[in-house]
Structures are given as C-alpha cells and as structure tokens.
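A favour between colleagues. Tell me how you read the following sequence-structure pair.

===
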Amino acid sequence: MAFKVQDFYFKKAKKEQYLARSIYKLEEIDLKYKLLKPNMKVLDLGYHPGSWTQYALKKVGKKGLVIGIDIKPVQQSLLNPIDPLILLQMDAFEVTALSQIQANEPFDILISDMAPNTTGNKTVDQFGSLNLVEKVFQILPLFLKNGGTLVIKVFESHEAQVFLKQELKKFEESHYLRPKSTREQSKEFFVIAKGLKA
C-alpha cells in the first residue's frame, strides 16, 4: 500500500531540523519512560540517518557521550567538534572489545532503530528484523552495563514474541510501545527494557 512520504511528521522533522521523522518515535518513548538523562553514555546502533543521535545528544548534554555505529558511511552533517559524539562505520556485531569503538566502559543505554532492507514480503522482513534483534541481545553483555536500558525496534511476529518473552527476563522490567508517529501500515513496535540484571 502506498503512503504519503511527506506526512505531518516528515514536515515537522524538516521544520525542527531533525534528519528524519523517526525522531518523534524516540521522543515519545523517552517522554513516557524517562530514559535519557544528562551525563549518560548512549550507544546508537544503526544510527543512520541520525535523528535518534541528534535527540540523544540533546538529552545527555556536553558531559554525556553518544557513540553511533552503522555499516553506512559516517553521517558528516552530524559531526560538530563541540559535541560529545563519536560516529563509526563498522559492523557492531563484529565488535569484541569496547576499545574498538573508543569506549572504556559499558553504556547506560543502548538504542536501536535498525531494520532490515525490506522486501515487501512479510515473512522475509519479519525474519530479517528478528535476526537483527537476536544479534543485539547477543552483544548486550559487552555493550550494556548492569542496570542499563535497551530500546529496540521489532517487526511483529509470533517468533519475535516467543524470543522476547524469554530474553526480556534478563531485565527488571520491560514494555512494548507503538509510537503515534509510526506509519499506519507499519508492523513495527518498540521494546523498552530497563534494569539489565547482572
């Protein structure tokens, strides 16, 4: 089904100088669950085009840190020498030590709006999304500190629900949210998991 690309949130993002309409998904999640705070260390996996990174920078302030990783080339328009920001072009799933991403300790929060390259085939796209989600959960012990928070996009499927039911036991609490800015035809939702257990 076709959709109108230049919708309300697209225009709002352009007016407010954000790089993508997806900013409003993270903003709604953050306002509801009070996740991002000054001085936090944030890891943004699959940060392109960069609106989540922009929002995170605004919330953590000059004494915080945001590291964005993506397999796509570095988004140069985000780079401002006064911002506590590191952008890296690499495969996050191949990282085995924090030093490889210029970090010296695990992060307070890991955020990810990653999605597979969609094909239009529902089953294929669901599998691609779940594959990414599974990989993120595999690397959590390296990247996320005890007590840390995860925000990740998931495409709805029975298999995803089964996986999440088990994996979210690793956190003190978890929530699902479909932000208001999500396009009507989208099958995505977001997992908010707080308090990673040791």
User: Anything to note?
Assistant: The chain has a mean pLDDT of 93.
